[in-house]
Write a structure and sequence with these properties.
94% of the residues lie in helices and 0% in strands. By secondary structure, the chain is an all-alpha fold. Helix 1 packs antiparallel against helix 2. It is rod-shaped and about 70 Å long.
């Protein structure tokens, strides 16, 4: 997910720069929108990682409780 976000951000930067150089405001806006989308994708990837870490910690804690009772 993070790799896709990085690629989308780079694509957006190139498109925005091309739009700025050529005076194409629509292309520039599309590029800026892709950069914003990339930031959201990156944040979603970070959140996914945090949820997986938390789920692993919860699983470890539950397993630890089971071993104490056994």
């Amino acid at each position: 997910d993070k790799i896709k976000a990085t690629a989308k951000g780079a694509e957006g930067q190139l498109q925005a720069a091309a739009g700025e150089l050529t005076g194409d405001k629509s292309m520039q806006a599309e590029g800026e929108a892709k950069q914003l989308q990339a930031k959201v994708m990156g944040a979603a990837g970070d959140l996914k990682d945090k949820v997986q870490e938390a789920a692993g910690a919860i699983g470890d804690a539950i397993q630890g409780l089971g071993q104490k009772q056994g």
